[in-house]
Structures are given as structure tokens and as C-alpha cells.
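Dear colleagues,

As part of the handover before I leave the project, I'm documenting each prediction I ran so the next person doesn't have to rerun anything. This entry is a single chain, and its sequence is reproduced below.
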Amino acid sequence: MRHTDEEIDEAARRFEQLAKNLDPATAEAADTDDLREVAVTSDAVRADEARLREAVEFAREQGRSWNQIALALGVSRQAARQRFTERVRS
């Protein structure tokens, strides 16, 4: 949906008015610590997944079998291969 220049100008005027009326001293803000923790944890999981892929790739480069890697991961050989085969050179 495209807006006309007049609609955009009107929206900008409304925003400016709202911004002028906003008093930071009295504005209520929601506590977002829980969401911040979700974001931080999600970033850590992605970083850990990347490190795990690198470790599996290194183990494969060192000649480790999928059976050995699966044992280290605590999963079946098939599960290890399915999870990492596309990401790791065999």
C-alpha cells in the first residue's frame, strides 16, 4: 500500500506532536529484562552451535569416525551424520 506525500507529511506531523508531548520523567516503560535474556541466550546458542560445527569438522579432519563423534555427542551415529553431514566435509 503506497501512501501519498500528503499522508506521509500528516503522519510526520502527528509523530512530532506526540514526541513533543512525551515526558521521559513520567513515561512508563515495560520491563524487558526477560526479553533481553532471551536475546542474549539465543546469541550464545548460535555461537555454541558454530563452535560445535567447527569441532565436529576438526574431528572429521583428524580422521575421527561418525561413531566416535556420535559417542562424544551422546547421540546415535545416524543422528550425528544427519545433523552435521551437510555442514561438514566428510
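DSSP finds four helices and no strands in the chain. Residues 33-61 form the longest helix (29 residues).

All the best with the project,
I.
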